[in-house]
User: Fold these one by one.
Assistant:
Number 1:
Amino acid sequence: MNSFLVLASLASSAFSSSLVGLGQGSINATSTTAVSTVDLETGARCACSKLAISYSSLVIYPGSANYTSQATSYWDIRADLDPACIFLPTSAEQVADAVGLFATCGAQFAVRGGGHMNYPGSNNINGGVLLAFDNMKGYRVNNDTIDVAPGMTWYDVYSALDPYGRAAIGGRLKTIGVPGLTLIGGVSYFINKYGFAMDNVVNYDVVLGNGTQVAANATSNPDLFWALKGGANNFGIVTKFTLKTYSMPHISTTIQEFNETAVYDFIKASCDWVVADSDSSVAAGSVLTITYNATTGSVSPSLLGVQEGISNPPSKFVNFTAIPGVYKVNNVTTSKQWAENLDSPKQMFRVTFGHHSMFPDSDVLYSMYQTWKAAVNQIADVQGLYPTFVINISPASAVRVAKTNGIGNVWGLVEEPTIWWQLSTGWDKAEDDLRVEAWVRQLVEHLHGINKRNGLARDFIYMGDGGDWQDPFAGFPGENVQRMREIRERYDPLGTFTRLNWGGFKLGN
Ligand SMILES: Cc1cc2nc3c(=O)[nH]c(=O)nc-3n(C[C@H](O)[C@H](O)[C@H](O)COP(=O)(O)OP(=O)(O)OC[C@H]3O[C@@H](n4cnc5c(N)ncnc54)[C@H](O)[C@@H]3O)c2cc1C
């Protein structure tokens, strides 16, 4: 395949040289004095006005035409906030310039990729500067990799690769952003064979906290390269991801829905699947959910199953196919076509997550489901209540990829199958926020407490499934956390991403 270049509209300069030394900001790269702390308003006024001098058409203020649509471009309605200004860079140089200004002004800022991290302040900011990547949607398809700018969604990536019959290891729904998912780990349909999204990144172009740009890969800044594999937004802003791609002209898919009588068998099939899926000869994965409508009393287990190749129905899901269901559709298609119908639109609802991980045990997982269902009835009066019990699976083979690729990742997981169970709860009204959030938190910790006592609980918390009150770093090996802190000190001695950058899961001191 010949390399070619496709650059969308404004993003023509999204990819610059991979290592360009100092950015345009007048920051001294060798300075190690921590960023100044000024009040929110003063810092934002300084950064917004300086950005507007250089890039007036890329800075928007409250009251201007696009402000509201930008400030509300989030999946979780709770994440809508009121930034003092919004900067929409078109290139890595502009990102570097902005970060330099944030540091000199002491301006607090937030960063948004696909806008799917679902809690207020994780990707938006009240009174500070929001840097959003909507103008950086460039990509370049290479022989066995793709360069991706941080404004891309996974659907954009699958669409770009579709003409070449290739696939990248990324999100399972259409509109999730590439940057957030890749920086926290990344569960795809193909983890059993290819590991997590982060395990498939061969280079990151990064803007550091002093406005310099560096490349992080196996030979250049390898410590930063490792830290970015699961370390989230603690080290810099990534302006380009280079992802491995794999030949996958077709995928075989199954959509299956069941009713309440199938719940136990569905849970058993899920537990059997995570253990059996350690056979990584065929890449396959799933979205497994049980929704409960407390008003109608209906319970709906469902499976979205995907497998590489054309075997129809997909052979990896025989345990689910054997369960009598209300709806079963199999298809042979492409990653692009499959993702097309799996939208998770912006402003969907107010929604909170909570999760822990455990060794698979169908009887225990079933009793957790029963406890959850009974607890949902306690808040059944909440308007728009949309409770879902999610079963994410992490087979041992997914963990093995990082153990054998010579790079690793910050998770340091034990090579064993685990279930990452998650409670996802949506609702309509702000007045119910505290009630629902407290309900989720209490229930999640109650269930995890039982698993701790029966020896099934594991410490790992996935940032993509956890709630804002959870601390994923506490579940990583202590030596990895210590190493991440040293790397953060080396690459961000000013503390730009600790002191000024709002949101996400921050590595404490
Ligand atoms: C409906 C839904 C489905 C999901 N499905 C999956 C799934 O299939 N697999 C999976 O693994 N996870 C999944 N997740 C979790 C998802 O991966 C995370 O929410 C992820 O953070 C989303 O990335 P984003 O770019 O859309 O998010 P954003 O909210 O834009 O960003 C997330 C965090 O990353 C920071 N950030 C964004 N861009 C950059 C950058 N360029 N450099 C540095 N920091 C940056 C933000 O400041 C923020 O803190 C899902 C979430 C939702 C809501």
Number 2:
Amino acid sequence: MTHIDGLNVLPRSVRDSQSEMAEIVLPNDTNPLGALLGGRLMHWIDLAGAMAAHRHSRNYALTAGIDHMDFLVPVHVGDLVILRSSVNRVFNTSMEVGVKVWVENYLQDQCEHVSSAYLTFVAVDAGGRHITVPAVIPETDEQRRRFDEAGKRREIRRAHFERRKSR
Ligand SMILES: CC(C)(COP(=O)(O)OP(=O)(O)OC[C@H]1O[C@@H](n2cnc3c(N)ncnc32)[C@H](O)[C@@H]1OP(=O)(O)O)[C@@H](O)C(=O)NCCC(=O)NCCS
């Protein structure tokens, strides 16, 4: 059942949800070759995504799903990992959050793109009831592109879901 909190429905800009998280890769985050574990990175992505979802909805949010992900370059022990997240689009009780991950080589002053992920969060109140999420207002060309693409990704997710149900 969807619950609407009248005080918390005003639209917000993408800026309001933009979040950044940084981690130094420690030996416990890596495999025996000193490369960052994919699962550890996924955990950080989930946290960075949740920050944006909480900031936008001003409520609790559950991870409903994570789209396909690729790891483009290896990350090593001692590297600085930067995760940037923001809400791309709001649907009803759910919102798509994009997380972009960079590895920063602070010795050479260089950044490389490691991964991009799209997560869907569902906003809930303290009783676990789904909550209508305030609309998000894209303000820049890049934000409008992400907004449009999020709509297409939702259609793809729904089509997958329907196919799975009919099996
Ligand atoms: C995610 C969850 C809240 C969805 O609840 P539900 O009652 O099955 O979902 P509903 O059919 O009512 O859909 C609610 C919203 O979630 C979206 N949704 C549900 N499952 C989804 C999925 N797998 N991926 C993307 N969106 C999803 C729906 O599209 C809908 O969005 P809308 O309101 O914006 O249109 C529920 O499955 C759940 O609690 N899962 C466990 C979440 C969790 O514990 N996450 C932590 C990791 S284990």
